[in-house]
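Exercise 7.
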Amino acid sequence: MHLDPQNSPAICLMGPTASGKTALAIELVQRLPLEIVSVDSAQIYKTMDIGTGKPDAKTLTLAPHRLIDFLDPLESYSAARFCEDARREMANIRAAGKVPLLVGGTMLYFKALRDGLASMPAADERVRADILNQASAEGWAAIHTELAAVDPIAASRIHPNDPQRLQRALEVFRVSGRSLSEWQAMQSPLPDGGDAFVFLSIQPVDRSVLHQRIERRFRQMLEEGLVGEVEALFARGDLGPELPSIRSVGYRQVWQYLSQEIGFDVMVERGVIATRQLAKRQITWLRGWPSLKNFDSDDKNLIDGVLRSIET
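Solution. The predicted structure, written as tokens, is:
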């Protein structure tokens, strides 16, 4: 099978959490001249390894990943910055004679790469803090209700249990007086020479299988030391639950446990539920994705089907 580093489209491997994307990507790298760019908004953070499912050293030796493990958890990251970083890494991969393989579940990043980005108002820490305080007092459902009043399009798209996106959508309106949907309608076109992409996704046909995997994986993360990993972040003293890093699924629940807001069993239950909710949102994104080639992650001939798809 031949891939032309200069002319073959970049391959995007998408799917919900725990669907087996990393294992498939590593197998593809062994078969084809590909190099992986991570599309994961949590794996970017240093010292956040277990809870993000970051590949271990052995795996990274076998299949190097770009755009993981480079940002301090105190820092924020954006889709705009991801696009800039990803396009740089993709160009470097092509210069090295390979084709980019973008792998992950942060669908907003994939969308930004595909469609370009609207010029958005900069983050406002005071407004952001006000929204967080309001959510703490009234709940995120109240934030969702307020958003629905000023931006019904965004509210219909954003789940009431997705605090990061709710916060940003309401922040944009409060800062600019213009809804997030209005800003997105003024989307900037992709720059000339932008990459072409082929989009693939994997997930189990049976949703209950995914739910079982999610619970099994979360419990395995706990056995591997997730609580200790979050304890180290907690002990730093400069991090808090308002940061995107700590709001990541799993970390948020363990942080609440360490803060003595909830007990261990409740933490486990909430961690599993939050991960399932994340998977549900990812699947919703995928349902509306145009020209997406879907594969059953439990198909024993998965790798052959994906290879044929890439070839054509």
